[in-house]
Amino acid sequence: MSSPAIEQAIRQIYVDHPAAVEPILTSRVLREDFVRSVQHLVAGATEDEVLQHLVRLRKRGADKGGLPRKTK
Predict the structure, then answer these.
(1) Cβ contacts of residue 60 below 8 Å, gap of 6+?
(2) What's this model's pTM, rounded to 2 decimal places?
(3) Cα–Cα distance between 67 and 59 in angstroms, integer?
(4) CB 34 within 8 Å of CB 67
(5) Contact, 11 vs 17, CB < 8 A?
(6) Is 58 buried (19+), middle (13-18) or exposed (0-12) by CB count in 10 A?
(7) Are the beta carbons of 9 and 45 closer than 8 angstroms?
(8) Which residues contact residue 41 at a Cβ distance below 8 angstroms, ignoring those fewer than 6 apart?
């Protein structure tokens, strides 16, 4: 699966998603909802791929093309 396509879909979904990365990773319901949303944009993306890219983008930070921090 194309990494840039998955990362672009994650960025797009994350902006409108109500939860930050940590709750998405730890809550089965939030995780399934987020992964399904990404898979709707990128057919064939696996849950593992989506979650790996989600963590990678969180670590990268918004200033380096990753994900912005969400306030609680």
Answers:
(1) 66, 67
(2) 0.90
(3) 8
(4) no
(5) no
(6) buried
(7) yes
(8) 9, 12, 13
Question: Closest Cα partner for 34 from 66, 12, 61?
Answer: 12
Note the pLDDT tens digit of each residue in 2-60. 699 999 999 999 999 999 999 999 999 999 999 999 999 999 999 999 999 999 999 99
Neighbour-count burial for 9-38, b at 16+ CB within 10 Å, e otherwise: bbbebbeebebbbeebeeeeebbeebbebb
Provide the 8-state DSSP code for 19.
S
Are 11 and 67 spatial neighbours (Cβ–Cβ below 8 Å)?
yes
Q: Which two tokens stand for residue 65?
A: 């093309």
